[in-house]
Design brief:
Elements: H1 17-29, H2 43-51, H3 55-59, H4 63-82, H5 87-107, H6 117-146, E1 148-153, E2 156-161, E3 174-179, E4 188-193, E5 201-204, E6 209-211, E7 214-216, E8 226-229, E9 234-236, H7 252-261, E10 264-266, E11 270-274, E12 277-278, E13 281-282
Antiparallel strand pairs: 1-2, 2-11, 3-4, 3-11, 5-6, 5-8, 6-7, 9-10, 12-13
Helix pairs in contact: 4-5, 5-6
């Protein structure tokens, strides 16, 4: 005999029933239940507005503002590239992100017409954070790691090309290389000209640096005496980054020996070569 379920006795609530009420409660709190479909903007158009800065103004029906936003974003992107590594580029980057987020917010505005003020503010900041964290920062990190990166050496910004190998290196070529923290030197990227090639014999004196019998000017913190031969697949470059010592560097001979251990650079430490020119700006001596 089959059991008849009376319609007057509803089924017992399950253990997960409170969880089913959480979603609608949050939707009512943020006024998400009042959201409507965006008219005139396809999902593909919305996606493109997330990828192209300024396009959101145009897709939202503000054609004149959209054209101006696209031109302005192109200009800001150009400033970011030309002034890479300087405060001007950081300001242009922030403005580019703000314009991009404003355009996307405008596309979504029909969804938020009847939403609370708190919801609109939350949505605007959410779009700004999402674009920055999911698009701009990863894109910047990718470019910095694989294409080019700015270095500050002695108050001067030098843009280094990260793609491609060292190729044929000659004396006087400028290289960027990785260095580990060692004594008085800080870890990071160093930049400087190649002073000696594999097999070259180097001799330090109190007045000069001698490479294969050819005298060159001494550089700061070089030893007063000593000799070495550059090993195979290595170069000799005197580090040109900051020296730190809390106001007291200690024995100069000790400092020289610590830096000397970082001056012989292997091919594995190669990080890139600086562009001879970054747009119209000459970067390093030829």
């Amino acid at each position: 005999m089959s059991r008849v379920v009376s319609p007057y006795y509803p089924p017992r609530a399950r253990w997960y029933a409170p969880l089913q009420r959480v979603g609608p409660g949050l939707a009512r709190f943020f006024s998400l239940n009042r959201l409507r479909r965006v008219d005139g903007v396809s999902p593909a158009g919305l996606l493109v507005s997330l990828l192209i800065p300024g396009l959101g103004f145009y897709l939202a029906g503000r054609r004149a503002w959209g054209k101006a936003a696209l031109v302005g974003c192109g200009f800001l992107l150009g400033v970011c590239l030309v002034a890479l590594g300087r405060m001007t580029a950081n300001i242009a980057f922030g403005l580019l992100l703000a314009v991009h987020a404003s355009g996307v917010t405008l596309v979504l505005q029909p969804w938020l017409v009847e939403a609370r003020f708190f919801t609109r503010v939350f949505c605007s900041f959410g779009i700004l954070a999402a674009l920055g964290g999911l698009l701009y920062v990863p894109a910047g990190n990718f470019v910095d790691a694989h294409w080019f990166t700015p270095l500050q050496i002695n108050g001067k910004v030098v843009v280094v090309k990260k793609y491609g190998g060292p190729g044929q290196v000659r004396r006087g070529d400028w290289l960027a290389y990785t260095l580990k923290a060692a004594g008085y030197t800080q870890a990071g990227l160093g930049l400087g000209p190649v002073l000696a090639l594999p097999g070259d014999r180097i001799r330090f004196t109190e007045t000069a640096l001698e490479v294969n019998g050819v005298f060159r000017p001494r550089l700061p913190h070089m030893p007063d005496s000593g000799e070495l031969v550059v090993p195979e697949k290595h170069w000799f470059l005197w580090p040109e980054f900051d020296i730190y010592g809390h106001g007291n560097l200690g024995d100069p001979a000790t400092v020289s020996q610590v830096i000397l251990r970082s001056a012989v650079i292997s091919e594995q430490q190669f990080a890139g070569k600086p562009f001879k020119r970054w747009f119209w700006r000459r970067q390093v001596p030829s």
